Amino acid sequence: MNAITSLFLIALLAAGLPAAQAGVLAGGTRVIYDEGLRERSLMLANTNPYPVVVQTWVDGGGGAPESAQAPFIVLPAVFRMQPGGLQGLRIIHIGEALPRDRESVFWLNLYEIPPLAGRKEPDPARVELAMNTQLKLFYRPAKLPLPPGQVAGKLTFDLRREGDAWFLVCRNPTPYHASFTTLGLSGDGRTLAAQQQMDMMTPPFSEKRYQLEEGALPNGARVSFRLVDDTGFPIPGEAPLAH
């Protein structure tokens, strides 16, 4: 691994990006594509001790290139990365009209395929795993009426009971997606967390329910959360329950 790659990986780890989840790491956990850009760039590093072939595409979250439908192309679409190698990606919006009053979200896929280690025939005793890493890609229109840093202060929450289950309802009146890493009720010196979902994100101008774990509701509870900012860092926040 050369010095440039080492410095790149140190920067990733300093940013809190998980190094063990995938062998090909991206220089960010999300991509913000501002309206008017000709393209966005993203750097990748292969931390595997072996070369890989990587296929890239943008879709709506399905994770299958043959069914991908999104107004973005990624170059190069297929490439080989040596151990410790770096590769730059170019993400280009191809001009399809998107809503102007809110963000649109897509998924950037990084599909890495390991080699057969020089074997002419697959070894049935060895499992060769391909891995698909998905990063959120946000298309952000120009002149939205609110800075993204003010999203946390605009969110409102209330409780809703359905049968024996309690749900925390998040209402997002902003033009941005609100992505949570954690969410729950805090009070009495304890926290009642919301159950983790595949996507802990409340879209713009909408509401979303998050089921709480089983347990008694804390007295005088307030909503506590960590909201992901544009750099991918979770920022702690707190809000009262609406009555």
TrEMBL record:
Residues 24-144 form the Pili assembly chaperone N-terminal domain. One of its GO terms (cellular component) is outer membrane-bounded periplasmic space. Its main location: periplasm. It comes from the Bacteria. GO terms for biological process: cell wall organization. Gene3D superfamilies: Immunoglobulins. Belongs to the periplasmic pilus chaperone family. This is Molecular chaperone. It comes from Pseudomonas citronellolis. The lineage of its organism: Bacteria, Pseudomonadati, Pseudomonadota, Gammaproteobacteria, Pseudomonadales.
